[in-house]
Design goal:
This protein has two domains: 119 residues, Response regulator (Rossmann fold, 3-Layer(aba) Sandwich); 96 residues, Arc Repressor Mutant, subunit A, CATH 1.10.10.10. It has eight helices and twelve strands. The strands form three sheets. The chain has a five-stranded parallel sheet, with helices on both faces. A hairpin with a 2-residue loop joins strand 8 and strand 9. The relative contact order is 0.10.
């Protein structure tokens, strides 16, 4: 962790803010507090935090709206922490640009782990031509992938999917987002496309496709790659 890492908490619930302040400060983070969406937007621009923890049930502006406004310019991690636990809310937040989503009540250890992973990935994110994940190497220029230095036989669509996951390593990508990016808006309901291609890709990149460690299913939501 960088000693200068600042976390902005946008949450109107006093007990949650106190809990987060104690937990995150003890782990060495500098904390900024906002009690509503309007102040949160101002504080994000003023302090340029390393990560934002955002509640959806804010008193002035809905958190989904704040999330979309932040994503117009803020390119660092945003983790949603909310009592809203419906699949629709989670998918909407992820499609709106959230990096991760935890529901209240939450385990502080899990939140800290997600924060560390999100910041680490953000700091290491580059536009590198070659991305490496353990024994898997993906070359964005030559459109090739190797596992244990052996070239994988991937179709154009399989490589497009794999590169999309690799460039968003550690982030949950929803079914709709993936389908839109690879096949277009007309296919966002065709989740069976994904099941077929994900199974094919896993056979090629995973040591044990039935127990994947690289391409992880987020049940009912989408997939997470790499972390």
């Amino acid at each position: 962790m960088n000693e200068n890492d600042k976390i902005l908490i946008i949450d109107d619930e006093l007990q949650i803010r106190r809990l987060l302040e104690i937990t995150l400060s003890a782990s060495g983070y500098k904390i900024i507090m906002s009690v509503n969406g309007k102040d949160g937007l101002v504080d994000a621009a003023t302090y340029n935090p390393s990560l934002i923890i955002l509640d959806l049930g804010l008193p002035d502006i809905d958190g989904q709206v704040i999330l979309k406004k932040l994503r117009e310019w803020f390119n660092k991690p945003i983790i949603i922490l909310s009592v809203r636990d419906s699949e629709e809310d989670i998918i909407t937040a992820l499609d709106n640009g959230a990096n991760d989503y935890l529901t209240k009540p939450f385990r502080t250890g899990e939140l800290l782990a997600r924060i560390r992973a999100a910041i680490r990935l953000s700091e290491n994110k580059t536009d590198a031509a070659i991305l490496e994940f353990d024994s898997l190497t993906i070359d964005m220029i030559s459109h090739t992938a190797k596992k244990n230095n052996e070239i994988l036989k991937l179709t154009a669509t399989e490589f497009s999917l794999l590169s999309l996951f690799a460039k968003n390593s550690g982030r949950v990508l929803t079914h709709q987002y993936i389908l839109k990016e690879i096949w277009g808006y007309g296919y966002i309901e065709q989740t069976h496309y994904l099941r077929v291609f994900i199974a094919q890709i896993r056979k090629k990149i995973e040591d044990n496709p039935s127990k994947p460690k690289l391409l992880i299913t987020e049940s009912g939501i989408g997939y997470r790659f790499g972390e």
